[in-house]
Amino acid sequence: MVRMGELAATAGGGVLCTIGLGSCVGVALVDDDRGVAALAHVVLPDSTPHRRRGGAVETPGKFADTALPLLVERAVGEGAGRRQLRAVLVGGASMFALRRGGDAQEVGERNVSAVRDALRRLAVPVAAEDVGGGSGRTVRVQADGTVRVKVAGGGETVLRAPGAGRVRATSRPTSPSILRSAA
Amino acid sequence: MSVPAYTPLQRDALAELANIGCGQACTALGALLGRVVDLSVPTVQALDLADAVEALGPAEDVVTAVVLPTAGDMEAAVLLVFDQSDVARLGALLGVDPADHEMAVSAMSEIGNILGANYLEALMAVAGIAAEPGPPMGLTDMRAALVSSALASSTAALEAAILIDTRLSVEGEECSIAFVLLAGTDDIERLLQSVGLGTEA
């Protein structure tokens, strides 16, 4: 179980799971050949406003910019090949639209684009994703690279099978700005 | 972690503030439902975000959540979580057709609005803070998805959430509504100071 703001990695027969992702983004990193998977539960896009004096981030797993480098490190620590890592993104739905300091964009949307930016900086390609929309999701990641997604009241679907470079997402992002940043 | 360790006395004070708010809410909710309503707040906890999500119940269960934000001097929000059985029961008291889920969610938003607004108003009045409750937002989804999203979208509750367990009874029918105050530790400190229980005092 990977809870809000946490991250974990597994090798061999392990399964990583995050239940009920809303605006948070579950980021899975997989290396099929070596049977290593890692999963982060990212809550917010940017750690900058939340740094303590001295620049330290108390909870790096919570923010996209600090969680992703740590996640790559964990996956490699479990034996994954740095260049064999593929990412799978799940979540970033638009849920409660609370006003947040005049920032019009939704938390979910900002999380997704911050995760994509962080992955680009780390040169990790995105193999599959199921992001945006307005529903919560549960994600299960196996060490062999299988990623399954479930929505409330629905069955589980395979978002990514082992070896697959890109499997079509089961639901399309509804927000035009998400579509734009995906292009 | 930076979850503040409130003393039993401070937690009692937060519970008492919640009780004052609930007292006001009872009358309004009773009028809406046309029944005798009783509310009590037995426990208050300050929890880390991940622990708060867990403490509210099974993560994947489908529930209806209502969020009521505040605008003004204090950026806070109240989150109320209703089990589907309570949605059906409370909806029935308001004359909602059980098959009409959209109406039921709207009814829960109204109940959440009354409870949340009265609670927030009582807190603000005691602490002398000028803030007004905004419009309620209700959604039905997986519990963890709703709770974590409410926590993530509240600027204030980045480190910890104040969990207030609330029992609502409507003429003998017991409903248990989870009630969460999403407020920053600084604002909680202001509330506690206003009743003479500040940490630095």
TrEMBL record, chain B:
Keywords: Chemotaxis, Hydrolase. This is Chemotaxis protein CheC. InterPro entries: CheC, CheC-like_sf, CheZ_family_phosphatases. It comes from the Bacteria. The lineage of its organism: Bacteria, Bacillati, Actinomycetota, Thermoleophilia, Solirubrobacterales. Residues 10-44 form the CheC-like protein domain.
